[in-house]
């Protein structure tokens, strides 16, 4: 079964780890809202107590502007782009608009370009002989003022039909932003084309697939953060850490969404792992196979947990509050989701959710590296308490949890130069949280999603 790559997955499906209906949004996230679709064309004591969040020095760089982007101050093209952003990304839009300065516009355009690319990849009515060249060449359309695509049947087709407006605003960005967006768009298009008819067999291929749909978004965003000078150059240069930010989110969504993906004919769990527990991936959902299914689930969660040390190191480097909030929220949502999924038979029977109140609390709390470390510690401890002694991956799970604990304890040697007060929450984040809740409530009433999250 081929894996259909998800471009804006980090945006859409990544923040899937947030409150919409609260399962966790799909990104910097699969930033995954639209969801990953396979082409049907050919397709789991004695631990120390949880460390309290340590009050640190006040944030060094307060937001110099209102929380959300004042639409009346924008030109017609940008207003249109922000309207498309709100239409195609119910929850992520609020967080993007809480970013500081010109970075906000660059990330908005970055999202819409990837959303357009993803819409092409997602459209089952486009034949492969047309789709593959489009994916390869999509980055070049950014410099073709008149290019648009009017034949898509996807719900987000407006970003293709009015691509001239998006590409115009792209060309209005500073060159440092244009270069990043074009480069990531090119690499992602190539990756999408590769996985149109390709199965996710080995764990190496799983990492590669997740890199294309989420790691590249993490890398692109990090380069935009540095280009804006709100963050140091190292943030954009260290692509390994940025890639891990995306992989942690993407793997969490893939793990959590086993049943939904099965029902829709998609397979993203690596054959190298699940084939040790069942003859077919779909067999894991059978009641007689539940014990083996949970063991497979626990092995994949253990794999995903190996990205947490990179996540903590990445977040410790951030110095701008709006960027920190933007990056930290999906990550704490992800660890809470993995804790809920670990050793949980419900993954194979229905939807595993984190409570909406829990999600909102995480959003409000994740405003400093100290607070994030405490949150990570709390949830890996929850996982630790559930490790079955007979689980084949138990030793590996205990080992990675020990590493995360060591990094999460107060005074750990992690290189954190910038600190934020864990009780400080900017007006931007408060409004973003309220908007997030409102938008998710509306989406629940208007869409029949089996799970929550977006992106």
How does the major sheet shape up? none
Unreliable parts: 4-60, 62-68, 415-455
H/E series, N to C?
HHHHHHHHHHHHHHHHHHHH
Report the mean per-residue pLDDT as an integer: 82
Globally, the shape reads: globular
Count of helices?
20
Percent in helix:
55-70%
Look at the helices and sheets and give the structural class.
mainly alpha
Q: Report the radius of gyration as a whole number of Å.
A: 20 Å
* Percent strand: under 5%
List how many beta strands DSSP finds. 0
Q: What separation lies between the terminal Cα atoms?
A: 24 Å
Walk me through the structure.
By secondary structure, this protein is mostly helical. It is 56% helix and 0% strand. It has 20 helices and no strands. It has helices at 9-14, 76-88, 92-96, 103-122, 128-137, 158-161, 163-171, 175-195, 203-227, 233-237, 239-256, 258-263, 271-274, 290-305, 308-317, 321-341, 356-365, 369-385, 394-408, 427-446. It is globular.
């Amino acid at each position: 079964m081929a894996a259909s790559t998800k471009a804006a997955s980090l945006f859409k499906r990544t923040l899937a780890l947030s409150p919409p209906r609260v399962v966790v949004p799909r990104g910097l996230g699969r930033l995954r809202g639209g969801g990953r679709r396979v082409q049907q064309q050919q397709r789991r004591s004695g631990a120390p107590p949880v460390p309290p969040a340590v009050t640190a020095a006040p944030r060094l760089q307060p937001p110099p502007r209102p929380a959300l982007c004042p639409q009346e101050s924008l030109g017609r093209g940008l207003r249109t782009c922000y309207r498309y952003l709100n239409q195609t990304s119910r929850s992520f839009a609020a967080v993007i608009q809480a970013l500081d300065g010109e970075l906000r516009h660059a990330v908005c355009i970055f999202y819409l370009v990837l959303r357009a690319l993803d819409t092409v990849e997602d459209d089952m009515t486009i034949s492969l002989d047309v789709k593959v060249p489009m994916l390869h060449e999509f980055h070049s359309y950014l410099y073709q003022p008149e290019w648009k695509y009017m034949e898509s049947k996807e719900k987000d087709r407006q970003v293709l039909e009015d691509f001239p407006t998006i590409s115009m605003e792209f060309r209005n960005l500073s060159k440092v932003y244009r270069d990043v967006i074009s480069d990531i768009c090119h690499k992602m298009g190539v990756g999408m084309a590769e996985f149109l008819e390709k199965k996710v067999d080995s764990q190496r291929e799983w990492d590669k697939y997740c890199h294309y749909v989420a790691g590249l978004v993490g890398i692109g965003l990090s380069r935009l953060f540095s280009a804006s000078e709100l963050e140091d150059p190292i943030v954009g240069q260290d692509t390994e850490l940025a890639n891990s930010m995306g992989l942690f989110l993407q793997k969490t969504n893939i793990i959590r969404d086993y049943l939904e993906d099965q029902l829709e004919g998609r397979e993203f769990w690596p054959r190298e792992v699940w084939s040790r527990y069942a003859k077919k991936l779909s067999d894991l959902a059978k009641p007689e196979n539940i014990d083996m299914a949970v063991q497979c689930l626990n092995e994949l969660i253990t794999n995903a947990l190996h990205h947490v040390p990179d996540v903590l190191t990445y977040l410790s480097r951030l110095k701008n509050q709006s960027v920190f909030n933007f990056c930290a929220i999906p990550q704490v949502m992800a660890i809470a989701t993995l804790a809920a999924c670990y050793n949980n038979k419900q993954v194979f029977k229905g939807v595993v959710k984190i409570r909406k109140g829990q999600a909102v609390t995480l959003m409000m709390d994740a405003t400093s590296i100290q607070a994030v470390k405490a949150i990570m510690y709390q949830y890996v401890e929850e996982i630790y308490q559930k490790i079955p002694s007979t689980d084949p991956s138990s030793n590996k799970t205990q080992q990675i949890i020990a590493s995360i604990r060591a990094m999460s304890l107060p005074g750990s040697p992690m290189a954190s130069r910038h600190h934020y007060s864990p009780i400080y929450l900017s007006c931007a984040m408060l409004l973003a949280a309220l908007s997030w809740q409102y938008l998710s409530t509306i989406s629940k009433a208007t869409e029949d999603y089996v799970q929550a999250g977006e992106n």
